[in-house]
Amino acid sequence: MTGPRADGAHRPRAASDPAAPEPAGPAPWRPITVGVPGVEFEARPPRQHVFDFPDTECDGWSTADLTVRFASVRGARHRYYSQPRQDAARAAVHDPTGIVAFAVADGVSDATSPELGAAEACRAAVSRTLHLLNRGPEHLDLHDVVNHAARRLWQVARWRSPGREPDPAEVARLYATTLVTGVVRPDPDGPVVALCRIGDSGAWLLDRPHRRYHPLFHPKTGADTPIVTNEVTPLPHVPDRLDHTGLRLARGTALLVGTDGFGDPLGDGDGQVGALFARYLAEPPTPLWLAHVLDFSRETFDDDRTLLVVWPRSTEARR
Predict the structure, then answer these.
(1) Nearest Cα residue to 92 out of 120, 117, 71, 122
(2) Would residue 163 be called left, alpha or beta, if left means φ above 0 and alpha means ψ between -120 and 50 degrees?
(3) What is the pLDDT of residue 27?
(4) Can you tell me whether residue 168 is helix, strand or coil?
Protein backbone atom coordinates (compact mmCIF):
# COMPACT_ATOMS: atom_id res chain seq x y z
CA MET A 1 0.00 0.00 0.00
CA THR A 2 1.08 3.57 -0.63
CA GLY A 3 -0.28 6.75 0.76
CA PRO A 4 0.54 9.97 2.58
CA ARG A 5 3.29 9.91 5.17
CA ALA A 6 2.97 11.62 8.51
CA ASP A 7 4.87 14.63 7.17
CA GLY A 8 2.34 15.08 4.35
CA ALA A 9 4.63 13.85 1.55
CA HIS A 10 3.67 10.94 -0.66
CA ARG A 11 5.67 7.79 -1.22
CA PRO A 12 6.13 6.88 -4.91
CA ARG A 13 4.21 3.86 -6.17
CA ALA A 14 6.23 0.70 -6.68
CA ALA A 15 6.84 -0.28 -10.28
CA SER A 16 5.03 -3.56 -9.62
CA ASP A 17 1.88 -1.81 -8.35
CA PRO A 18 -0.92 -2.77 -10.79
CA ALA A 19 -2.46 0.64 -10.28
CA ALA A 20 0.68 2.42 -11.52
CA PRO A 21 0.19 4.03 -14.95
CA GLU A 22 1.92 2.49 -17.95
CA PRO A 23 4.97 4.52 -19.02
CA ALA A 24 4.40 6.52 -22.17
CA GLY A 25 6.65 5.85 -25.15
CA PRO A 26 6.77 5.10 -28.85
CA ALA A 27 5.36 1.87 -30.21
CA PRO A 28 7.90 -0.89 -30.98
CA TRP A 29 9.39 -0.72 -34.44
CA ARG A 30 7.83 -2.98 -37.03
CA PRO A 31 9.67 -3.87 -40.26
CA ILE A 32 9.16 -1.29 -42.97
CA THR A 33 7.04 -2.83 -45.72
CA VAL A 34 8.04 -2.19 -49.32
CA GLY A 35 5.40 -3.37 -51.78
CA VAL A 36 4.24 -6.87 -50.85
CA PRO A 37 5.86 -7.87 -47.53
CA GLY A 38 7.62 -11.11 -46.86
CA VAL A 39 6.26 -13.73 -44.46
CA GLU A 40 6.48 -12.78 -40.80
CA PHE A 41 8.03 -15.29 -38.39
CA GLU A 42 10.25 -15.34 -35.32
CA ALA A 43 13.89 -15.74 -36.29
CA ARG A 44 15.56 -19.01 -35.36
CA PRO A 45 18.95 -19.01 -33.66
CA PRO A 46 21.98 -19.85 -35.78
CA ARG A 47 23.89 -23.02 -34.97
CA GLN A 48 25.74 -22.86 -31.67
CA HIS A 49 29.27 -22.68 -33.10
CA VAL A 50 28.53 -19.39 -34.93
CA PHE A 51 27.33 -17.45 -31.91
CA ASP A 52 29.96 -14.78 -32.66
CA PHE A 53 28.05 -13.60 -35.76
CA PRO A 54 25.01 -11.70 -34.46
CA ASP A 55 21.79 -11.24 -36.39
CA THR A 56 22.35 -7.48 -36.73
CA GLU A 57 25.22 -5.07 -36.21
CA CYS A 58 25.64 -1.38 -36.91
CA ASP A 59 28.06 1.46 -36.27
CA GLY A 60 28.39 5.15 -36.94
CA TRP A 61 30.61 8.13 -36.26
CA SER A 62 31.93 11.35 -37.78
CA THR A 63 35.33 12.91 -38.35
CA ALA A 64 35.87 16.59 -39.05
CA ASP A 65 35.17 15.97 -42.75
CA LEU A 66 33.14 12.78 -43.10
CA THR A 67 30.19 10.98 -41.55
CA VAL A 68 30.10 7.17 -41.65
CA ARG A 69 27.24 4.76 -41.00
CA PHE A 70 27.02 1.06 -41.69
CA ALA A 71 24.65 -1.76 -40.84
CA SER A 72 24.46 -5.46 -41.60
CA VAL A 73 21.32 -7.56 -41.05
CA ARG A 74 20.60 -11.27 -41.41
CA GLY A 75 18.23 -12.09 -44.24
CA ALA A 76 14.91 -13.89 -43.84
CA ARG A 77 16.24 -17.07 -45.45
CA HIS A 78 19.08 -17.41 -42.96
CA ARG A 79 16.79 -16.48 -40.06
CA TYR A 80 14.38 -19.24 -41.04
CA TYR A 81 16.98 -21.97 -41.64
CA SER A 82 19.04 -21.25 -38.50
CA GLN A 83 22.01 -19.96 -40.47
CA PRO A 84 24.24 -17.04 -39.45
CA ARG A 85 24.53 -13.71 -41.20
CA GLN A 86 27.17 -14.15 -43.90
CA ASP A 87 27.78 -10.46 -44.65
CA ALA A 88 30.27 -8.22 -42.88
CA ALA A 89 31.43 -4.60 -42.86
CA ARG A 90 34.20 -2.67 -41.15
CA ALA A 91 35.36 0.96 -41.20
CA ALA A 92 38.09 2.91 -39.43
CA VAL A 93 39.70 6.33 -39.58
CA HIS A 94 43.42 6.84 -40.09
CA ASP A 95 44.07 9.40 -37.37
CA PRO A 96 47.07 11.25 -38.88
CA THR A 97 45.29 11.99 -42.19
CA GLY A 98 41.55 11.69 -41.48
CA ILE A 99 41.26 9.12 -44.28
CA VAL A 100 38.40 6.65 -43.78
CA ALA A 101 39.17 3.03 -44.70
CA PHE A 102 36.29 0.62 -45.27
CA ALA A 103 35.44 -2.89 -46.39
CA VAL A 104 32.18 -4.72 -47.15
CA ALA A 105 32.00 -8.46 -47.82
CA ASP A 106 29.41 -11.10 -48.68
CA GLY A 107 30.36 -14.69 -47.88
CA VAL A 108 29.53 -17.08 -50.71
CA SER A 109 26.74 -19.37 -49.52
CA ASP A 110 28.28 -22.49 -51.07
CA ALA A 111 31.34 -22.16 -48.85
CA THR A 112 31.62 -24.08 -45.58
CA SER A 113 32.14 -21.02 -43.34
CA PRO A 114 31.28 -17.96 -45.45
CA GLU A 115 30.49 -15.85 -42.38
CA LEU A 116 34.08 -16.23 -41.18
CA GLY A 117 35.48 -15.56 -44.64
CA ALA A 118 33.54 -12.30 -44.93
CA ALA A 119 34.51 -11.08 -41.46
CA GLU A 120 38.19 -11.95 -41.85
CA ALA A 121 38.40 -10.37 -45.31
CA CYS A 122 36.98 -7.09 -43.96
CA ARG A 123 39.28 -7.05 -40.94
CA ALA A 124 42.33 -7.85 -43.05
CA ALA A 125 41.51 -5.25 -45.71
CA VAL A 126 40.98 -2.39 -43.26
CA SER A 127 44.00 -3.37 -41.19
CA ARG A 128 46.26 -3.51 -44.26
CA THR A 129 44.95 -0.19 -45.53
CA LEU A 130 45.76 1.52 -42.24
CA HIS A 131 49.20 -0.07 -42.25
CA LEU A 132 49.97 1.25 -45.73
CA LEU A 133 48.64 4.70 -44.83
CA ASN A 134 51.03 4.79 -41.89
CA ARG A 135 53.85 4.61 -44.43
CA GLY A 136 52.26 7.52 -46.31
CA PRO A 137 49.08 7.91 -48.40
CA GLU A 138 51.18 7.56 -51.57
CA HIS A 139 51.90 3.95 -50.51
CA LEU A 140 48.26 2.89 -50.61
CA ASP A 141 47.89 0.07 -53.15
CA LEU A 142 44.45 -1.54 -53.35
CA HIS A 143 45.86 -4.57 -55.14
CA ASP A 144 48.14 -5.08 -52.15
CA VAL A 145 45.15 -4.69 -49.80
CA VAL A 146 43.11 -7.32 -51.64
CA ASN A 147 46.06 -9.72 -51.81
CA HIS A 148 46.52 -9.31 -48.07
CA ALA A 149 42.86 -10.23 -47.50
CA ALA A 150 43.30 -13.31 -49.68
CA ARG A 151 46.40 -14.33 -47.71
CA ARG A 152 44.42 -13.91 -44.50
CA LEU A 153 41.87 -16.47 -45.70
CA TRP A 154 44.72 -18.83 -46.51
CA GLN A 155 46.15 -18.35 -43.00
CA VAL A 156 42.79 -19.14 -41.39
CA ALA A 157 42.49 -22.28 -43.52
CA ARG A 158 46.02 -23.29 -42.50
CA TRP A 159 45.19 -22.92 -38.80
CA ARG A 160 42.14 -25.09 -39.36
CA SER A 161 44.29 -27.86 -40.83
CA PRO A 162 47.66 -27.67 -39.06
CA GLY A 163 50.57 -29.53 -40.57
CA ARG A 164 49.73 -29.01 -44.23
CA GLU A 165 49.40 -26.22 -46.76
CA PRO A 166 45.85 -25.67 -48.08
CA ASP A 167 45.55 -25.07 -51.82
CA PRO A 168 43.47 -22.18 -53.26
CA ALA A 169 40.55 -24.45 -54.09
CA GLU A 170 40.34 -25.63 -50.48
CA VAL A 171 40.50 -22.06 -49.16
CA ALA A 172 37.67 -21.12 -51.53
CA ARG A 173 35.56 -24.08 -50.40
CA LEU A 174 35.95 -22.94 -46.82
CA TYR A 175 35.87 -19.13 -46.88
CA ALA A 176 34.98 -17.75 -50.33
CA THR A 177 33.70 -14.18 -50.12
CA THR A 178 33.15 -11.06 -52.17
CA LEU A 179 34.90 -7.86 -51.10
CA VAL A 180 34.57 -4.14 -51.76
CA THR A 181 37.28 -2.10 -50.08
CA GLY A 182 38.75 1.37 -50.37
CA VAL A 183 39.23 4.77 -48.80
CA VAL A 184 37.66 8.21 -48.65
CA ARG A 185 40.30 10.95 -48.40
CA PRO A 186 39.35 14.46 -47.19
CA ASP A 187 40.22 17.21 -49.67
CA PRO A 188 39.41 20.96 -49.81
CA ASP A 189 37.67 20.44 -53.17
CA GLY A 190 35.60 17.52 -51.88
CA PRO A 191 36.45 14.08 -50.49
CA VAL A 192 38.19 11.71 -52.92
CA VAL A 193 37.10 8.06 -53.12
CA ALA A 194 39.19 5.12 -54.32
CA LEU A 195 37.74 1.63 -54.17
CA CYS A 196 37.87 -1.80 -55.76
CA ARG A 197 35.88 -4.99 -55.69
CA ILE A 198 36.14 -8.76 -55.95
CA GLY A 199 32.87 -10.48 -56.84
CA ASP A 200 29.44 -8.92 -57.29
CA SER A 201 28.96 -6.62 -54.30
CA GLY A 202 28.45 -3.03 -55.41
CA ALA A 203 28.87 0.68 -54.84
CA TRP A 204 26.78 3.69 -55.83
CA LEU A 205 26.90 7.47 -55.75
CA LEU A 206 23.66 8.86 -54.36
CA ASP A 207 22.68 12.30 -55.68
CA ARG A 208 20.65 13.27 -52.63
CA PRO A 209 18.77 16.35 -53.93
CA HIS A 210 17.62 14.50 -57.06
CA ARG A 211 17.30 11.08 -55.40
CA ARG A 212 19.26 9.37 -58.17
CA TYR A 213 21.70 6.47 -57.88
CA HIS A 214 24.75 6.10 -60.10
CA PRO A 215 26.44 2.67 -59.98
CA LEU A 216 30.21 2.80 -59.65
CA PHE A 217 30.65 -0.74 -60.95
CA HIS A 218 28.84 -2.48 -63.78
CA PRO A 219 25.55 -3.68 -62.25
CA LYS A 220 24.36 -7.25 -62.59
CA THR A 221 20.77 -5.96 -62.90
CA GLY A 222 19.32 -3.02 -64.77
CA ALA A 223 17.95 -1.96 -68.11
CA ASP A 224 21.30 -2.38 -69.88
CA THR A 225 21.96 -5.85 -68.41
CA PRO A 226 20.19 -8.44 -70.60
CA ILE A 227 21.27 -11.49 -68.56
CA VAL A 228 21.28 -11.70 -64.78
CA THR A 229 23.83 -14.07 -63.28
CA ASN A 230 24.68 -15.08 -59.73
CA GLU A 231 28.10 -16.43 -60.71
CA VAL A 232 30.99 -14.67 -59.00
CA THR A 233 34.73 -15.15 -58.76
CA PRO A 234 35.36 -14.38 -55.10
CA LEU A 235 38.33 -14.23 -52.79
CA PRO A 236 40.78 -15.91 -52.38
CA HIS A 237 41.06 -15.43 -56.17
CA VAL A 238 42.59 -12.06 -57.05
CA PRO A 239 42.60 -11.12 -60.76
CA ASP A 240 45.59 -9.50 -62.41
CA ARG A 241 43.41 -6.54 -63.37
CA LEU A 242 41.42 -5.32 -60.41
CA ASP A 243 37.94 -3.91 -60.91
CA HIS A 244 38.46 -0.46 -59.41
CA THR A 245 37.22 3.10 -59.69
CA GLY A 246 37.54 6.54 -58.13
CA LEU A 247 35.59 9.77 -57.86
CA ARG A 248 35.16 12.96 -55.88
CA LEU A 249 32.20 13.35 -53.53
CA ALA A 250 30.51 16.61 -54.45
CA ARG A 251 28.24 18.49 -52.11
CA GLY A 252 24.86 16.79 -51.87
CA THR A 253 26.19 13.31 -52.68
CA ALA A 254 26.92 10.22 -50.60
CA LEU A 255 28.93 7.07 -51.22
CA LEU A 256 27.02 3.80 -50.79
CA VAL A 257 28.75 0.42 -50.61
CA GLY A 258 26.62 -2.69 -50.25
CA THR A 259 26.19 -6.39 -50.80
CA ASP A 260 23.77 -7.77 -53.36
CA GLY A 261 21.18 -8.22 -50.59
CA PHE A 262 20.88 -4.44 -50.85
CA GLY A 263 21.82 -4.01 -54.50
CA ASP A 264 19.35 -6.52 -55.95
CA PRO A 265 16.19 -4.91 -54.50
CA LEU A 266 17.63 -1.46 -55.21
CA GLY A 267 18.00 -2.23 -58.94
CA ASP A 268 18.45 1.01 -60.86
CA GLY A 269 17.10 2.99 -57.91
CA ASP A 270 13.87 4.10 -59.60
CA GLY A 271 11.57 1.84 -57.58
CA GLN A 272 10.18 1.80 -54.06
CA VAL A 273 13.40 0.57 -52.45
CA GLY A 274 15.34 3.39 -54.09
CA ALA A 275 12.80 5.92 -52.86
CA LEU A 276 12.95 4.50 -49.33
CA PHE A 277 16.71 4.86 -49.04
CA ALA A 278 16.87 8.20 -50.84
CA ARG A 279 14.49 9.50 -48.19
CA TYR A 280 16.38 8.18 -45.18
CA LEU A 281 19.88 8.79 -46.50
CA ALA A 282 19.24 12.44 -47.38
CA GLU A 283 20.95 13.14 -44.03
CA PRO A 284 22.87 10.68 -41.86
CA PRO A 285 20.43 8.64 -39.73
CA THR A 286 21.36 7.07 -36.43
CA PRO A 287 23.12 3.72 -36.84
CA LEU A 288 20.16 1.89 -35.30
CA TRP A 289 17.74 3.55 -37.68
CA LEU A 290 19.87 2.61 -40.68
CA ALA A 291 19.77 -1.01 -39.53
CA HIS A 292 16.00 -0.77 -39.13
CA VAL A 293 15.47 0.64 -42.62
CA LEU A 294 17.86 -1.93 -44.11
CA ASP A 295 15.75 -4.68 -42.54
CA PHE A 296 12.74 -3.76 -44.70
CA SER A 297 10.25 -6.47 -45.63
CA ARG A 298 9.63 -7.27 -49.30
CA GLU A 299 8.66 -10.61 -50.75
CA THR A 300 11.34 -12.65 -52.61
CA PHE A 301 14.20 -10.50 -51.26
CA ASP A 302 15.45 -12.63 -48.37
CA ASP A 303 19.26 -12.36 -48.54
CA ASP A 304 21.52 -10.80 -45.92
CA ARG A 305 21.84 -7.04 -46.42
CA THR A 306 24.80 -4.83 -45.67
CA LEU A 307 25.18 -1.13 -46.45
CA LEU A 308 27.95 1.35 -45.66
CA VAL A 309 27.39 5.04 -46.36
CA VAL A 310 29.82 7.98 -46.29
CA TRP A 311 28.61 11.59 -46.42
CA PRO A 312 30.80 14.69 -46.79
CA ARG A 313 30.19 16.96 -43.82
CA SER A 314 28.91 20.44 -44.55
CA THR A 315 30.74 23.54 -43.36
CA GLU A 316 27.98 24.12 -40.80
CA ALA A 317 28.25 20.59 -39.46
CA ARG A 318 31.97 20.98 -38.85
CA ARG A 319 31.48 23.90 -36.47
Answers:
(1) 122
(2) left
(3) 82
(4) helix
